[in-house]
Amino acid sequence: MAATPDVVSPADRGGLAAPSTLPASAGPSTRMSADARRAQLIEVGWELLQSRPIHEMPLDDVAAAAGISRTLLFHYFPTKADFYFAVVSAMGERLLRPPRIPDGLGPADRIRTLVDGFVRLVERNRLSYTALVRGAGGGDQRVVDLIDRTRDALVPRWLDAAGCKHASALTRLVVRGWLVGMEETVIAWDPGSVPRHALVDHLTASFLAELRLAEPDLAEGLV
Length: 223
Prior knowledge:
The chain is mainly alpha-helical and 223 residues long. The protein is built from 9 helices and 2 strands; from the N terminus they run ββααααααααα. The protein has 2 domains: 6-78, Homeodomain-like (Arc Repressor Mutant, subunit A, Orthogonal Bundle), CATH 1.10.10; 102-221, no CATH class. 60% of the residues lie in helices and 3% in strands. It is elongated. Residues 1-29 have low confidence and may be disordered.
C-alpha cells in the first residue's frame, strides 16, 4: 500500500459532510496521508453503522462521505471484506479500552465501573453496535472470529477487576457467557422504562453472584 497522500477536491465531496472528528479542509483541496485516509474511512464506516448493518453498507456511500472516489477507496482496502474487517477491528479496540478505575475501590465497585462503562458505550453507539454484533459482518468468518476474540479478551479484564487472579476454566467460561448475556441485555435495554443506574446495579449484582457461585472461596472478598 502506497504511503503517498491523496488530494480531494471539494467538488468531489458530493455535498456530504465528513465526520466532525476529521480535519477540515485548509484550502481548495484536502491532502491526507495514507494512514490518515484509512483512519477517516474507518470512522466513516463506524458512523454509517448507525443506520444499517455492516454488510448492507454500500461502499459508494462510504466513498462519498469521505469525499473520495470508490476507486480510491479500493486503493486503501482491496476488497469490501477488508474494509468491513477494518471497521470491526476498530470497534474491538474501542471495546477493549477499559474505563479508568479509580484507586482504592473494592472488587464490587470495580466491577460496577466496568458495567457502567460498557452500558454507556452501547448507549452512545447503540445502532452501530447492534448492527455490527447482530449482523456479524454479513457472515465474513474473519469478522465472526474477531468478535469472538474480543469477547475472549474481555474475560481476564473482568476477572482481574474482581480480584480473581487464578480463575478456573469453569469460571472463565461462566464469565464469558455472562458477558454475552450482558451485551444482549444492554442492546435490548429501553432507557425510558429502566433507569441506567438500576440496570447497572442489577448487572453488577448478577456478575458478582455468578462469580460467587463459580468461585466460593472468593465470596467474602467480593464486596
